[in-house]
Amino acid sequence: MRPSALGLGLGAAVGGYVGFKARGKTLVPWPANVQGAFPGTLGGITGLLTGVGVDVLIAAARRPQRVPAAMLATAGIFAVAGLAGKYAAGNALTGIAKKGSELDFGFAEPPSDPLVTGSDASAIPYTTLGREGARFVGTVTTSEDVTFVTQKARVIEPVRVFIGVESAATVSERVQLAIEELHRTGAFDRAHLLIQAPAGTGYANSTPVDVLEILSLGDCASVAVGYGLLPSFLSLGKVAIAAQTQRELLDAILAELRDRPAKPLLLLYGESLGAKVQEAAVPAGLIDLDAYGIAQALWVGTPGGRVADEFHARCAQSSITVDRPEQIPADLTDRPRVWFLEHDGDPVVRFRPELLRRSPFWLDPAKPRGRNIPDSMGWVPWVTWAQVCVDVLYATNVKPGQFQSLGHDYRADLGAVVTAAFALNATPEVAKRLEQRLRELEIARASRIEVSA
What we know:
The protein is an alpha/beta fold and about 450 residues long. The chain has 15 helices and 7 strands.
């Protein structure tokens, strides 16, 4: 079917309009080559789809009997392409997962600390923790870190437990290993027990754990149980099994603590996909937190959407959402139980299908703009959705030690927000030294990772 003049004309007009609108400001910086190519690419795709759509409608009006055959042929092409793509993707994912299971050279040796998983005192083979698990258990804070920040001596060595997806074959077996490790290390006798939901690769952020270990003077334990080895954007299909992992872990911890006269404060932490996973494990919000005896919860950069909005609503009676530490209330005598740390301009939080057809509240021209949302940014059907979709790809630009409070990078906020959310004590002087030490710890971790590069 030859392109019609009408199809070409409308395609060019619509594509040109979209390309022009696509030159506007976005939530986070993009590489220069992407920024330059995006308007033309989006305009070209839009123009092509518009032209083809117009020509299909014209053909359908002229010869409707040909439409089913054309549709079947098109479906066949897509089916073949889909099967080929699935095969290629499967091979690629296998390679990515294999890389996620390999340890960095700088973390190749098991830790000597008996209070962490993978040490000689642990029954869990260190190599089963995967790359992220090894990084997590291999960077426990030291007595020197505690003394530098708090000017006090550490009262006890902290506990870190991590169970990798390769540590056992099933969710229940992995959870049982976690409970055995918590028993072995005396974690249930600590003042605080932090349960972190890792991201898809197994990544469990050490920074909030660093804060807890330092400000509690070591009187704490943390536990994370992995469910995969793929990046978060490739792990969305594992949210169900990841949530099951969290529920079984919470159930097992609840059973362990039920008859104990002295119990640790239970704290929840999840970041990005980890936040989505942990929220899915306690879907009733405050009701579920009551059932599990959770003292405080902090969820950071939760991917946006209807489910996230509804979960926020179920926590509304005792929750707070902050974009940055400056928004932490000065008076926390009535401390919120649930804390959401979500940047106004985080594309991971803001991206959702509804952007295709509806202007979001954060782009309402009648309301003040949130931080890092450009004043000139407006909603255009299809265009804004595509822009924020690309924003997601560049939402995190991490440089070790150079903490930013931008996009999906929350490192600059975690020291103060974790302190407030978990009811830890820090004078302004302590908080200042804490921020310095958190940056130093990240640089030290990064140096060990870069040895592998």
